[in-house]
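Archive entry: two folds, one per protein. Generate the first.
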Amino acid sequence: MWIPTEHEKYGVVLVSFRGTVQHGLPLEIGDTVQILEKCEGWFRGFILKNPNIKGIFPSSYIHLKNAHVKNKGQFETVIPVEDSVITEMTSTLRDWGAMWKQLYVKNEGDLFHRLWHVMNEILDLRRQVLVGHLTHDRMRDVKQHITARLDWGNEQLCLDLVPRREFSMVDPDEISVTELYRLMEHRHRKKETSAPASTHHLFVHVKSLMSTNLGEELEVFFHIYDGRENRPLSERFFVKLNKSGLPKSPEKTERQCTLFVDLGSSDLRKDVYIVVHIIRIGRMGAGEKKNLCSVQYRRPFGCAVVSIADLLTADSKDDHLLKVYACNTESEWYQIHENIIKKANSRYNLSGSNTGLAVALQLLHGDIEQLRREYMVLFTRGVSITRKLGFSDVIMPGEMRNDLYITLEKGEFEKGGKSVARNVEITVYVLDIDGQILKSHVAAGSGEPGGDEYHSLVLYHNNSPRWAEQIKLPIPVDMFRGSHVRFEFRHCSTKDKGEKKLFGYSFVPLMQEDGRTLPDGTHELIIHKCEENTSLADCSRYLKQPFSKANLPSNNQTLKGTKESFWITSFLCSTKLTQNGDMLDLLKWRAHPERINDSLSKLKEIDGSEIVKFLQDTLDTLFGILDESSQRYGLKVFDSLVHIINLLQDSKFQHFKPVMDTYIESHFAGALSYRDLIKVLKWYVDRIVDAEHQDHIQQVLKASEYIFKYIIQSRRLFSLATGGQNEEEFRVCIHELFMSIRFFLSQENKSTSPVAQTQAVFLRTFPAVYGELLKIFTVREVAGFVRETLGTLPTAVHADCLEAVKLQCIAKTVESQLYINPESRCILLPVVLRILQAHMQEQRDLVMCARILTSMLSLIKKEENGTAEPVVSEEVELIVESLLGVLLRTILEISNRPQPAGPAMRLQFQDVTGEFVACLLALLRQMSDRHYEQLLQAFNSKDNLRDFLLQIFTVFRILIRPEMFPKDWTVMRLVTNNVIITTVLYLSDALRKNFLNDKFDYKVWDSYFYLSVIFINQPCLQLESFSPSKRKKILEKYGDMRVMMGCEIFSMWQNLGEHKLNFIPAMIGPFLEVTLVPQPDLRNVMIPIFHDMMDWEQRRSGNFKQVEAKLIDKLDSLMSEGKGDETYRELFNSILLKKIERETWRESGISLIATVTRLMERLLDYRDCMKLGEVDGKKIGCTVSLLNFYKTELNKEEMYIRYIHKLYDLHLKAQNYTEASYTLLLYDELLEWSDRPLREFLNYPMQSEWQRKEYLHLTIVQNFDRGKCWENGIILCRELADQYESYYDYRNLSKMRMMEASLYDKIMDQQRLEPEFFRVGFYGKKFPFFLRNKEFVCRGHDYERLEAFQQRMLNEFPHAIAMQHVNQPDQTIYQADAQYLQIYAVTPIPESQDVLQRDGVPDNIKSFYKFNHIWRFRYDRPFHKGTKDKENEFKSLWVERTTLTLVQSLPGISRWFEVEKRELVEVSPLENAIEVIENKNLQLRTLITQCQSRQMQNINPLTMCLNGVIDAAVNGGLARYQEAFFVKDYIMNHPEDGEKIGRLRELMFEQAHILEYGLAVHEKFVPQDMRPLHKKLVDQFHLMKSSLGIQEFPAYVRASPVHFTNGSPRTCRNSVPNIISPDGGRGVARRSLPSYPAVNRYSSSSLSSQASNEVSNITGQSESSDEVFNMQPSPSTSSLSSNHSASPNVTSSAPSSARGSPQMAEKHKHSRENACLSPRERPVSAIFPNPLDPAQRAPSHQIGDTTLPRSDPNLSAPDKVRPTPSSWSLDSVKEGPPSFSDSFGKLLCPPVPPRPPYSAGSSAKNMRSQSPVTSRSPQKTTVPPFTPSPTECQSTSLVSNSPVLSGSYSSGISSLSRCSVSEASGTELPAGDHPSHPLPPSTTLPNSVSSSSDEPIRRENKTPPPYSVYERNNPRRPVPLPHSLSIPPQTDPPALPPKPHQLRTGSMKLDGTSDPRVPRPRPLPRKVSQL
C-alpha cells in the first residue's frame, strides 16, 4: 500500500533506472527527485526538472537528503537543507552544463574550454566544502572563490546577476527592495568599474646584457628617478651578471626579479624614469691586456633610461631591450642619466651598436596583499622587494622600518706627491659601539644580500671624483646608539702589482648625544690622513676627533683650512627613531618642566610622521600635563589634542585612527579630564558668534568626535572609580553644552559668513557623537538632544553649502545606531521627513535625498516581522503621506531630464533614478489595504486623483523600460513587476469607481491600458525564453504575472460598456501584441476582446473596416519581430469563429477572420524562411506569395511596395538580376511621368515622381543588362529617351540612345545560355503554406541540369523524400505529415512564334523568344496501350502529353511560379510516328544547311546523322512503321486515320528526298579518308529506297520546295532564297502540290540529343537555300533520346524517318508559320493536338491544312473549327515593304495571319481569320521557276520586296513580318494610327488563338503579369526638365533582339485583359504618389 512520505522527501539518483516496469520513471545519475509516496522498497515521485511526469523507482537507487518542505500537501515544494552556496553551485552547474554543450555547437571554442576548466574547479571546491574538513577561514576563502567563479561564468554566459550577502544568495522577499537594489548595485559596480588603485608597483625581471665586448663580470643597478626634482625616488635594485651577460644565480629568481613597491599615482608620469647603471668589475682600462695583476676594480660601463609612462599602455609583461650609453668622460659619470634624459648628446654615446639590456617590465596596480593573491606564482617563485625612499603615501600602524641610506656624493683630494691624479676607491664599514664591524649590514641595494663592506667605483686619475653611489644600511634600532660609519680612502695603482694604498679616512656617528639620529641632508666630512699601514682597528682613538667640518670649533683652523673633503648625503627612514629635538623635549617634559609651554607650542610644527610614530607616548604626555597643571596648561593641552586628532583626519595618517581608538579604550587613564575638556569646548562654542576669526574654532569642532570620546571615556572611568558620583553635575554640563551649540546653530547667516561655515563644520561631525552619548544617556534622551539640535536649524537657509551639509547630517543620522532603534525613530522621523520633503520638492541634493530615503526604507523592512508591527505601519503611513507624491514627481522629472554629457554625471543620475525607484518600490510593497484606502481618500477632488493616477501609471511605464536596470538584473525586474501588478490591482478599483459612466476619463483609461500592455510584453516576463529551472523558480515565487494582468485588462474592458468605442481602433494594435505572447491562458482571455471590438464597431458604423485595417497593419510588423506562431493562428481562428456564430454580421466576420488567418499563414512562412541559414529560393518564393497577397487580397499598397523592395534585395543577393528587374518594375508601374512631389520612403529621398521613375528605369535597365535580358532593357531605354526628347534634354537623350545601341550590340555579340525548366511538386503537410500541395515550374540556373537541380532542391529541403515516379500523387501523400518532392524536366512552349518562324533571324535573337515570356510547358510520358507486339512495339506505343499553364510567365518576379492549370492528352502511335520522322527531317535539314553555309567546323555531325538514319532505315526502322500502319488491317480498323497515314507516307518520301540531297552535299565536303564511308552510305541509301519501294521520286516530291531555314545570316531579308541544290545552277519549275493537313505538325522530337542541340540553331537563310524547300521545325523542343527521357523504349526503337514537303501551284504559294522550336534534352515531350473529330475533318476532295496553328496545341478536338477561306495571295511581292510603325505600334512581335485551306489545282480560296487581327491581301508577283541541280546553288537576281514569301509551307500560316494588320478590317492602317487597345507583346496573337471563335484568347485567360513588356501612351505634358541623367555603371555588356517593331512609346506594361474566372486584384488607390 502506498503511504505518503513524512521525512523521505528529497533525494539524488545514485544509479540510472530505465523505468521498464509498469509506471516506472526513467532516472539518470545525478537527477534530483521529490518523493511523494513509498511502498515496500519503492518510491513514487517525480524528477524536479520535469514535475509533470510522475512514476515509481526503487528506493535503493536514491540517496536521501534532508529537506525543508513548504506548503505541505498537494502543492508542496521541497528545499534541500544544505549550505546555500552548495545549492547555488548545484543548480548553476546544471544550467551551465546545457549551455556549455551549445558553446561547442556554436564553435565558441575559447569560452568552451575556459568554462570547462572553471566548472571542474567549482566541482573540486564543492567537494571540499561538502567534506567539511576546512577551517573557518579556509571555508570563507573557498566560498569567496566559488562565488567569484560563479559570477564570472554567469557574466560570460549572459545569465542573471545574483544578489548575495556573505556569499549566500539573497531571497528578495526577505529583504527590503532598497537593500536588494544596494546589493545589486554593489555587485554590478564591482563587476563593471573597479576603483582606480592608489598604489602601484613596478615589476622588473633582468634577462641578460647583450654586447660584443664583454668578458668581465657586471653589476647592474636599477632605481626610479624623478627627472623633475632630479632625485631618486627609490632605493637601488642590484643584480650581478656573469661574463656572458647572464644573471650569476639563475636558480634564485629573487636575485633577478624585484618589485618596486608603493609608487603613488603622482609617480606615474612622463618625467619619472627607470634608471639603470652598469658597472664592470675588472681591470682599470677596458682594453688593457691581461697582466699579472689580479686586483679587480669597479669601473663605469654604461647607463640606460626608460620612462615609466611608456609602461602605462603595456598590460602584460613586455620584454624591453634598453639601449646602453657610455659617457664620453668619466668625470661626467655621476650625471650620465641626467644627460640622457636631457638628450645632451655631446656628453654620451652608444656603448656599442649591439649593446642592449634585456629586461621585462610590468606595472601592477593595487594593494600588495591583493597582488600576492592575484600573482601567486610571482611571489612563491621569489621576488625581492625594493622600497621607496621614505614612507609610502599611506602609513600603516605596525609597519616596522629602520633604513639609513647614505649616498657617496663626491670628494676633493690632493695629489699627495704624485705626478698624476689619484685613482680613489672608498671602502665603507659600519661599526657598533664596541668598534666591531657589523656583519651583513652594508647593502648595495635590494636583490643581493648585504655584505660587511662596500667598495665604491674607481674613477681613473681623478682628484675630484663624483660617485653618486647610494648604499643602504639596515641597522637594527637597538644598535643605532654608539654605532658609526667609516669611509677608508685608497689609491689604486695601475702598475704591475696593482696595490690599493690607504691614504685617509672619514667617519660619521649615527646618533647624537641627546638621542637624535644623524639629521637628513648633505654632510661635509673631514678626511683624516693616515699612512698606508695604519691600523684603524681601535676606533676609540679617532672617534674623539671631529668628523664634520660643520661641527668644527672655531679655533681649529688646521682642519678647517684643509682642501680635502668628502661629501655624503644621509636619509633615515625609521618608524622608531627621530631626528626631531622638539619631539624629544615634549616626551621628556618631566625632566625639563620649564620647557612645557614651549614644547606644547612647537608640537604643531613637528612633522606628522614623527607624531604618529610616538602617538601613544605623546597622548600620555598631554593628559599627564593636563592632570598635573590643568589650570595653567588646560587650553594649550586642549589645542595640542585638537591638532593631533585633526592630524589623523589626513589621508596619509587615517589608518592611525584605530590606534587612537585602542588608546582611548585600553590605555587612556584621565578620569578627571572630562571636566576640563567640557569647560574648554563650551568656552570655544560660546565665542563662535562673536569671534572674528573662526579658523581655530572650526578646527576644534572638526575634532569634536574624538573630544566627546575622551569626555565620555573619562566620565566612565570617573564613575567606575567613584561609584557614579557627580552624575547630575555631568548631565547639567552636557545640557549646557548642547544649549550653547543650539544657540550658535540657530543663527541665520549668509553662506559666505564665517559662522555659517562653522555651523557646517559642526554638522559634519555631529552624527559621530551619537554613539558616544548612548554610552551614558538613554536612547530617548539622545534622540531628544538630536531632534532639538537639528530642529533649531533655520528653515529658510540662504546658504547652499549649509543645506547640503544639513542633508549629509540627516543621512548620517538615519544610518546611525541611534535611528535603528524604533523608540528613537518615532522621535526623529518627523524632523527627517520635514527636511527631506523640502529638498525633494525643490529638486535639490537628490543624491543625498535618495541615500536618506533608502536607509529609512531598508530599516522599515527589517522590522516587518518583528514585534513593532503597529509602529512600522504608522511609519509607512507617515512616509506615504509626506513623500509618495513628491517621490513620483521626482522620478518623472529625473527621467525626463536630458542625460548629462559627462560619464561621471550620467552615472550619478542613473544611480539617483535607481535609488528613487527602489525607494518607491519598497514603499509600495510596505503599503497595506488600509494605506491604499487612506491614500485614495486623501484626495479631495477627482482632478487630484486623476493627476495622481496618471502620474503613477507613467512612473510604472518608466520602471518597465529595459534601460531602467542593467540587462542581467532579472531579480530586480521581477520584484518591480510584482510590486507594479499589486499596486495596479488596488488602483483599478479606484479607476472603476471614479472614472466610469458620466465621469469617464479617456486619458486615465488609456494610460492604464497602455501600461498593462507594455507590462505584459516585457522581455523579463517572457518565461518561454528562460531555462526550465529559471522558469520554475519564477512561477513558484510570482506565478505568471502576464496572465494576472491579462485577466485584469479583460475585466476592466468589460466594465467600459459603450466607452469601448473610444479605444477602437487605437487599442487594437496593443491588444494584438498581447495576444501574440505565447501564453495559452493569456491568449484565451484576450482574443475574445477582438470579437467585442468588431461588435461595437459594427454597431457604430455598420462594418468593421477599421478593425480589419488595423489588425492587418499591426500583424505584419509584429510577426516580422518574431511574435506569433501556428498555434496562435489556429486559436485566433477557432475562438473568434465560435464567438461570432450567433451574430447577425456573421458572414462579414467570417470573411475578416479568414483574411487575417490567411495573412498569418503567409507571415509565419515568411518569418520562418527569413531565418538565418535558409536558402534564397525559399525566401524569394515566400516573399512573392506575401507580396501577391498584399496586392490582390488586401490592397495594402505601402506594404506591397515594401515587400517589392525586400524581394528585390533578395534577388540581388542571389544574383537573379532578371528577376530583380521584373520585381522593381512592379513599383515602377505604379508611378507616372509627373512632377508630383513624393515623400521620403525606404531608401528614396524626397523627390518628384518623375525623378523617382527615371531612377527606377535606369536601375531596372542596369539589372536587365546584368541578367542578359537586353530586349527588355531596350524598351525601357526607348521610354526614357522619349521623355528626354519631350523635354529637349538632348544630353541625356544621347546617352540613352548610346545605351540602347550598346544593348543591341550585346544581343548580337554575347553568348546567352539557354535555361532548363523543371516542374516541382511539393506534397505533404510539412511544407510551408505557400508551397504545400502545390506544383511549380522553375527556371534553372546556368548550366543546371535535372540531376543538379534535384540535388539542390533536396539540399533546400533536407527532410524531403524524392518521389521516383511522375504520376500525380494520391490523397495519402497530400495529407501525410512529411515532405515529398516530385521533380522532372519540362519543355517551354513559346508564346511569341513570329520571330521564331521568320527566316534569316540569327539564333542569338531567337533564343530570347524561345525562353522568355513562357506561360506553358509540356511533358511527355510514353506508355503501351493494349497488348504490346513484341516484334513491333510501335503498334501500341502511345504518348501521354501534359501541358502546364502557369499563373505568371517565366521569367518574372520569381524563378518559379505556381501551375494554374494542367491539361492531359494522349498521342496515338501513328501521330507519334509522324512526329518522330518530322523531327528527324528537321535535324537533317539543319545540319545540311549548316554544312552548306560552312557554319560547321567539320562534317562529322552530318556524317553521323546520315549514317544513323540510313542505317536504321536499311535495318528496318521505317519498315517497322510500314508494318505497323500501312497494312490492310490497320487501315480497315482505323478509317479515321487515312489522312495521317498519307501524311506519314509523305514524310517518309520527304526524308528520302532530303537524304538524297544530303548525300550530294556530303559528297562535296567529305574529306578523302572518309570517301569509303560515303560510298557505303550511298549504297545503303539505294537499298533504303528500294526497301521503301521508291524507284524514282514522284513529281510532287522532286519539285517539293524543301527550304533549309538555317541559311546564312548574310542573306538579305528582302532577297528571294535560291532553290536548294548542291550546285544551284538550274531552276525548278514550281508546281501545284496537294498539302496534307498540318494538324500534327507541331511536334519535333528528335532521336538524338546531339542533333537536338544542332536543331536549336535554326535561324536565318542560306545563300544557297531556296524558298521552294521551306521545311520548318514544329514547336516541340523535346528529344526522344534525351538523358532525361522517361522511357527507354521510345528512345531505343524510334526509327529515322523522312517527311516530304508538299508542292503548290506556281501562282499560289502559302507563307508558312515559322513555328520552329529547338528540341531540348528533355523527357519525351512533343506537342500533339488531339486528332480532329471525324465530323470536323476536311472532305476528301479538300486537301490542305484544316486547322489553325495554336500556341496551345493541346486544346481538345471539338474546340477546333474549320477556317473560312480568304483571298490571301502569296504572289504579292511587288508592293514595297510597309512601315514597321504601321503594324507594330502596339505589338512587340508581328501577328501572323491564318493559312488558307487549299485545293489542288484551284486558286487560293478566301479564308476568314479566327484572330482579332484580320489578314490583308498583298499584291501579286510572279516568281521564275527553279530546277534542282546536283551542283552548287547560286543566287538569282530576283529579289522579293516582301519577306512574306519566305513562309513555312507545312504550317499553313504566313508570317506577316512586315505587313501591317488592322484589327477591324483587311485594310492597312495609315502610319501613326494605332489600335485603341494595345496588345501585350509577350505573345503573338494568331499563334495563341484557337480555331474556335468562342474560346477566349489565351493571353486573356491569364492574370496579367505585372512585369510584361508593354507600351505606354502618355500625352506629353509641359513639366520642368528633369535632373541630369546619371546612367548606372554597366558591368559586362551582354546582347539584344532585332529592334522590336514598336513606336517609341512602347514599353513594359501590364496586360489589360484577364480571365473572368480568376479573381481580379483590387485596384490600388493612387496614394502611390506619396511613396
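Generate the second and append.
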Amino acid sequence: MAAAGALPAEWIKNWEKSGKSEFLQLCRMLSENKSHENVTFRDIQQALYELANHVVKGNLKHDQASNVLSDVIEFRDDMSSILADVFCILDIETSCLEEKSKRDHFTQLVLACLYLVSDTVLKERLDPETLESLGLIKQSQQFNQKSVKIKTKLFYKQQKFNLLREENEGYAKLIAELGQDLSGNITSDLILENIKSLIGCFNLDPNRVLDIILEVYECRPEYDDFFVPLIESYMYMCEPQTLCHILGFKFKFYQEPNGETPSSLYRVAAVLLQHNLIDLEDLYVHLLPVDNAILEEHKREIVEAKQIVRKLTMVVLSSEKTEEKEKEKDKEEEKTEKPPDNQKLGLLEALLKVGDWQHAQSIMDQMPPFYATSHKPIAIALCQLVHVTVEPLYRRVGVPKGAKGSPISNLQNKKAPKQAESFEDLRKEVFNMLCYLGPHLSHDPILFAKVVRLGKAFMKEVGTSKKLNSEDRMVKFQSDGNKQEDKEKMEILFSCLLNITDQVLLPSLTLMDCNACMSEELWGMFKTFPYQYRYRLYGQWKNETYNSHPLLVKVKAQTIDRAKYIMKRLTKENVKPSGRQIGKLSHSNPTILFDYILSQIQKYDNLITPVVDSLKYLTSLNYDVLAYCIIEALANPEKERMKHDDTTISSWLQSLASFCGAVFRKYPIELAGLLQYVANQLKAGKSFDLLILKEVVQKMAGIEITEEMTMEQLEAMTGGEQLKAEGGYFGQIRNTKKSSQRLKDALLDHDLALPLCLLMAQQRNGVIFQEGGEKHLKLVGKLYDQCHDTLVQFGGFLASNLSTEDYIKRVPSIDVLCNEFHTPHDAAFFLSRPMYAHHISSKYDELKKAEKGNKQQHKVHKYITSCELVMAPVHDAVISLHLPKVWDDISPQFYATFWSLTMYDLAVPHNSYDREVNKLKVQMKAIDDNQEMPPNKKKKEKERCTALQDKLLEEEKKQLEHVQRVLQRLKLEKDNWLLARSTKNETITKFLQLCIFPRCIFSAIDAVYCAHFVELVHQQKTPNFSTLLCYDRVFSDIIYTVASCTENEASRYGRFLCCMLETVTRWHSDRNIYEKECGNYPGFLTILRATGFDGGNKADQLDYENFRHVVHKWHYKLTKASVHCLETGEYTHIRNILIVLTKILPWYPKVLNLGQALERRVHKICQEEKEKRPDLYALAMGYSGQLKSRKPYMVPENEFHHKDPPARNAVAATVQNGPGGAGLPASLTINAAKLEESTAEETDKLKEKTQGAVKVINKAANATPKVTTSNGNSAPNSKIIKEKDDKEKSGKEKDKEKKEKTPAAIPEAKALGKDGKDKPKEERANKDDKTRETKEKTPKSDKEKEKAKKEEKTPKDEKSKTVVTNTESKFTAEKEREKEPSRERDVAKDMKSKENIKGGEKLSVAGSLKSPVPRSETSESEREQKRRKVDTHSSPSHSSTVKDSLSELKDSSAKHYINHTTPALSKSKEREVDKKDLDKSRERSREREKKDEKDRKDRKRDHSNSDREVPQDSTKRRKEENGTTGSSKHSKSESPSDSPRSNEKEKEKNKSKSSGKEKGDSIKTEKMEKSSSGSKKESRHDKEKTEKKEKRDSAGGKEEKKHHKSSDKHR
C-alpha cells in the first residue's frame, strides 16, 4: 500500500496538480475496503498522520491540509475520532520537540481543523496546556483540579446502599417484590427486571440484594421453581464465587459454641448444589468441623466402646462399683458445654432430603465408614430416599398378597435419582445407598422389610428362571447369548444381594430392638438360599460384623452380659420366663447368645434339658442360626476331642451331641448342614463326630443302640415295627413320626443317606489305621464301636423310614457295594437286607393279586417263587465276594440266605406280644379306675390303647404267617446248602468264618439270630451239617475271638454264646428233650464219613449221656479260656472276658468247681485293679456279685454229668466182646474224631504257653486239672467220658455190641484205639492231682506265684518241638486205618505205644513244669507241639479247635476200651471185690495222706533246685503219683520206627497195668467228688490192685526213663 510507508514526496510537490487528488483517491479506496476492518483503520490513521506530519514539518500549508481533510472526513463516520487520535499523538510528539516552528505548525493545523473535530473530543484527548493554547479552555490548572474532583466523585464516593436502614424504601420494595404472591403469572424474569430497576433507582448493593433473595428463599422453600431460575439469572450480573462466599458467610455466622445452623439454610445450600449453582468443594471449606476432627471423634468412639466391653467383662466388686459410678457422674458434668453443630452432616441430610445422591455420596466418602449414617437424622433421610427409589419396583413385586401398603409420593425433583423399575436398577442405585446405610437401616424397620421382600421376590424370579431354563422354555431370550448374559446378570445380582444381607440386613437386625417380625421376614428370604450361603452369612455376622462398628461392639458386650444373667438363673422350674428372655434376646443377636449358651452346655451338661425347653420362643431364623452355631462349636479347632487320658471322648463333645439330638428333635431346624458336616468329617477320616449323628438319629427317630438291652427288649426287637416301638427301647420315645420324617427328608434332599452309610462302613474298618496310631487301644475300640453302632442305628433308621422305591433307588447291588465301594461284607448285607425284604414282599403281593388262590399251599408257593426271583441275582452277585474255593463247601444260596434273613423271619416273639398286650390291658384298667381324669380324655386314652392292642395282635398274626412261609422256603432250600466237597470240618470252618462270626458281633439281634440260625440248620436236618462240630468249635477256644473284640463286640459275642449255651443247656437238661430234638438228627452223627457215604444208623449217633460229657467239656473249655484271659494282665482281655462272662451268666458256670475257679480269679482282679484301672475293677466287682448270687444254682460235677467208676462193668463188657474189641458200641464211635482232638487241643496249651501263663492257669484253677498233657485241657473230660462210656457199656450196650460187630465199625474203632490207650491214665492222674490240689491250694499261693515265674522260663524250643510228633501220629493213624483187618490189632498197639510216648512223656513235663526240664524228657513233646502249632494256624476262626473237641471225645472212649481188653485181669478183680470191702476205705485214706506228703515234698524240692538239679527220680515219683510211670516206661522204650509186632507182649503188660492204675485213680477221684456209695465196693478192690502195680512200676522206672532218653536222641 502507498500509505503504508509515507506519502510519496512527488504528491507533496505536485499537491495542487495531482497530489491532492491522489491522496483523496487513496483515502476513498481505504475507506471502501470493508474486508479487513482493523487493517483499514490503521492504514487510514497512517495516511492522516503522514499528511499532518508534512504540515508540521512545513512541507504543506495548513489550509491545504484542512481543505483535503474536510473532504476526507466524509468518507467514514468515525473519521473525526481517527483525526483526534492523530492530533493526540502529534501533540505528545511536538510537545517534546525543542523546535518551536513545528509546534506552531501543529497548533495552526488544529485550529484550522476545529470545525472538523468537536471540542469535547479534543478536550478528552489533548493536553490541558495544548487546549489552553488553542483557546478551548481558559486555564489549564483549573481544568486539572476539576477533573480530579470528578474522578473522586465517580470512583471513590459510595452511592450503593447495603444496609436496610440506609435505603429502607428500596429494600422494602425489594422484599415486597420477592414476598408477593407468586401463584399468578409472575415469572422470575419479570421479577428480575424489577429488581434491577430497584437496584438502579435506590442504589441498592447487588450483593446484599442476592443475600436477601437467599433469605426470602429460605423462608419460602416451596417455590423452588421460582427462586432457582431467579438466582441463576441474577448470577449473570455477579462474579461466579459471589454466591458461594455469601453462603459461606451465612454458615460462618452459626459457628459459635452453642450455635445452631437452621435447616432452611442447609436446604437452600443443598438445592443450589443440586442445580450446580455452586461447587461442593468451594462450599465444603466453609463448613465445620474439619475432617481431622471427625476422624478423631470416630476413633474416640471406638475406644469408648471397647472400654465399655472391658467393664462388662470385668468382675467388679461392690465397693469398686460405687466409685466407678461417681467417676462417671463427674465426667458427665464436664460434658455440659456442647460443641457447635456438625454443619457437614447437616448439609448431607439436606442433600439427601432433596434427593441429591451424588453430592451426598461424595461428602460421605470423606468421612469414616458409617460415621455419617450413625447419626439418626441422616440415616432416616437416606432411608427415605431409598423408599422413594424402590417404590415402583416394590409395588410391582414386593407387596404381599392382601396388603394395601401406603404408597410413597415421588420427590418433586427432576434431578433426584431415577426410580427402580427392575432388579437391575435396584443394583445400580439402591444397593449402593444401602451399603452406605450399613447397620443403621435398623432405624427404619419398614424399609428393612421392603428390602427383604424385594430380595425374596428376586430369589423367586431366579427360581422360576432356573425352572424355565431347565425346561428349555425361555421365551424371553432369543438366543443362547442372551441366556448367558441374563444368567450372568442374575449371578451378579445374587452376589450383590448376599453382600447387602451381610453388610446391611444382619447388622441392622442386631441393632433393632427385639423385633421378631423382622427376624421372620428375613427368614422368608433366607430359606430360599442354600444352607452353604446362609451359614457363611451367619459366620460373617458372628465373627466379623460385630467388630466393624463401635455400636455393634457395645451391643455384643451387652448381649453377652444379659445372656450370662439369664443363664445363671435358668433352672427346670423357671424354664418359661427364662425362655421368654432368651427369645427376646435372640431375635436381634442370636449368634452371640447361642455361642454363650453352647459354651455353658459344654461345661455343664445338666443345663441341656432346661435350655432345650427354653428355646421354644425362637424364630425360624434363630433356629437356623442355632444349627450353624452348633456346627461351629463342633468344628472348633482349638478344642481337644479327647480327655487328657486319651482314652475317652471329651465331655464337651458328648454334651454337644446330646444337646444336638434333643434340640433337632424338638424344633424344626434344618439338618442338612449338620449331616453334611458329619459326612465331611468322615471323608477326612475322623469319626469322633459320629457321636452327633448317633444322638440325632436316636432322638429324632427313636432308634437307640445300646448294649444294655434286656433279653425282653431284644425279644421285642425281633417283632414288627409296632412291637419294637412299644417294647424294644428304654425310653418310650413317642411321636417321632414328624421328626423322623424331617430327618428322612433332609437325607434324601441332599443325597446323604447312602454316602453316610458307606462312609461309616469304610471308616469303621479304617478307624484302627487312620485314627489308631498313638491313641490308646481303649479309645480306638470306643471309636470303632461308635462308628459301628451309628452305622447299625442309621441303617435301621433308613430301613424303617425309606419307602421301597427310595431304598432300592439308592442302595446298589451287593457286589457293587463290596467291590466298588469297598464296603465290608457284613455292613453291605446289613444295608441290602431291607431291600431284599421289601422286594420279596412286593413281588409276593403282585403274585397274590395276579392269582386269587387263597389256600395256604398256594401262598407258600407264591412266596417261594418271589424269593427265587429276588434272590437269584443276589446268589450270582455274592460269588464275586469270596474265592472260588469257598463255594466248594457252602453254596452261594446258603450264604445269601444266611445274610439276607433276620430274626423277624425265623421266629415270632409270642411272649413279647403277650407282654405288651397285657401292659395295655393294665393301662386301660388304670384309666377306668382313675377318678380324676376327665371323661373325654379317658375315652381318648382308651381308644388309643385299644387301637394299639389291635395293631399288635394284627402284627403278630402277620409275622406268624410270614415265619411259616420262610421256614417252608428253607425246608426246600436246605438240601443244596452245604456241599462239603472237602470235609464237613472244613464246611463248618467256612460257615463260622464267613457267616457266624462276622454277623454275631454285628448287633445284639444278629447275635441272637446267629444262635437261632445254627439251631434252625440243625432242626432242618441239613445234610453235611455237623451240629456237634459247630457247637464244639464255638465253645472250644474263645480266647482269640474274645481278645480281638471291642467292648461292644464283646458284649454281642457274649449274647451269642449265651444263646448257644441256652440251647445246649436245654438239651442237656432232659433226656426226652435231647432225644426229641437231637436224637436221630444228622447234626449229632459222630462218624465223619465222606459226603457220599450214608451211615445214618443209630450206632453213629451221640447218645444223651455222652452228650452230657461233651457239654461238661465245653464248660471246662470256657473256664480255661476265661482264666487265661483274666490272668494275662492285658486290659482288653480282662475287660472283654468279664463282659462275655456277665452275658453268659444265666447258663455258665453251672458246675460248682468251675464256678469257684472263676470266682477266685475274679476276686484277684478286684484286688489288683482297684487302684490301677477302676473301670476293670467296676466290671469285676459287678460280675463277682452276680456270680455269687448264682452260686445256689450251681451243681457238683457228678450231677452235671454221670461219673460212675468204669472198672468192673467195662471189663465185663470187653470180655464178651473178645480181646479184639471188634464190635465197639455206639458210645465208642464218638472218639473217632479224638485223633484230631489231641492235636488241636494242644494248640490251646501252646498258645497259652506263649502268653507265659500256662502253669498259672493249670495250677491256679484248682478245680481245673493241673495237667498240661498232650491232650491239654481235654484230659479230665476224656476221663469223664470214659467213665460214662464204661457205665453205659456195662448196661444196655452189651447187647448192642454183639449185634453191631460189623466190619464197617472195626477199622474206625481200631484206628481210634491207636490214639486212645494212653489217655485214660493221664487223665486219671490229672484228676488225682486235681483232688489233691484242691486241698493244698489255699496255703500255697506264694508257691503258685513262684511256679508261674519259673514256668515262664521254660525254654522256647520245648514249645516248638512238641508239635512234630503229634502230626506224625495223626498221619500214621490215618494210614493205618486203611490197612487190612488182619493187622488191625498190631496197628492199634503200635499207635498205643506212640500215644504213650506222647502222653506219659508229656505228663512228666507237666509234673516238673515248675522248673525247666532236661531236654531229653521234653524233646518229644516239643516236636508234637510244633506240629500242633502248624495245625492250629491252618484254618482261621477256630477250625482246629472245633476238630479238637469231637475228636477228643472219640479218642478218650476208644482208649478206655482198648485199655481194658485183658480178660484175666478183669476176672481176678471180680473175685476180689467182695473180700476187701472193709479194708478199702482205710487204705484209701492212708494212700491219700502219703501222696499228699509226697506232693508237698516235690513242690518244695522244685522250688529249691536249680535248672539242672531237677532229680529224675522226683519226676519219676511224680509220675508214680500220677499213675503214669508204667505207661511212660514202655512208651519210652519204643520208637515209632520199631515194628509193631515186636513189642506186642510189652504192650499187653502195659495195658493191664495201666488199666488197673486207672481204676485205682478213678476211685480216689470219686471219693474226692463224694460219689454215691453204690460204687464203693468195686473201687476198694481196685485200690489194692493199684498199690501192687505202683510198686512194680517204681522198680522199673529209672531204667526205662534212661532208655527213653536215648531213643529220643536216636530219633
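Annotation attached to the second fold: The longest helix spans residues 935-973. The chain has a mean pLDDT of 75.
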